[in-house]
Write a structure and sequence with these properties.
- The chain has a domain of 189 residues: 3-Layer(aba) Sandwich (Rossmann fold), CATH 3.40.50.720.
- Helices cover 39% and strands 19% of the residues.
- The chain has ten helices and 13 strands.
- The strands form four sheets. The protein has a six-stranded parallel β-sheet with strand order 2-1-3-4-5-10, sandwiched between helices. Strands 11-8-13 form a three-stranded mixed β-sheet. A two-stranded parallel ribbon has the order 6-9.
Length: 280
Amino acid sequence: MRVVVTGAGGFVGRHVAEAFRTTAHQVSALDRAALDVTDPAAVARAVSGADVVCHLAARVRVRESRADPAGYWRTNLDGTRAVLAACGDRTRVVLASTASVHAATDVPIAEDAPLDPASPYAASKLAADLLARDLAAAGGPGVVSLRAFNVAGPGDTDTSRVIPALLSGRPFRINGDGSAVRDYLHVADLADAVVAAVDAAEPGTWRAYAVGSGRGTSVAGLVDTVERVTGRVVPVEHGPAVAEPARLVADPSRIGRELGWRPRRSDPQRIVTDAWRYSA
């Protein structure tokens, strides 16, 4: 099969492109320099003849999205619209979505959890999901949206995210007592989920999957793990508590049941170890 991966120059995209290469597919890995996803003509040329399109190109920083909502909607929604419009009705499409389309809750978050995007980033990704749903129902390409939790692991250099920040050696700020719990997903496990999702992207259908480890790790616990793996103390600065959910963890049972996917690498020790070895 010919597989097109948009956003292939990014952290997740590099792993996804490699996952498809190892399964002997013909892969066209398109980074931001090679493809502007908001240019419909360029997108049409890029995906022409593709059997599978993995659309990963997006803007993903929550705080930045609040400063530039129009830019986020343009890339994340209009870019998705261009990709889907360029796909034939037999093309299988996998979209990188986000768990942040859901309302915050202490209950494990599955696909049917209430929707409540709290940022322009999350809202633009939810809009892309709903567009894919509606186009599929109208006879468009089959689409699977993977709503990933906190993706981490080797190759992530974005110190606005927790694990790269902890590994940077610079002071790390904890708001409150560090008890906030999040679900960390190894990037290679997400890449496996993308590959597995292709078979589920049946023509004329759309479905979403929650993709996470199903286990929670506190910020304080992650600091301890980083110190054990690296053998060095993480310089921590404490600030006042902020309003944030106490616990956000996936319920990935549906993707396990329907696609046979498992988060085989997503324990915090493995994630931190792989990220540390890559950066060393």
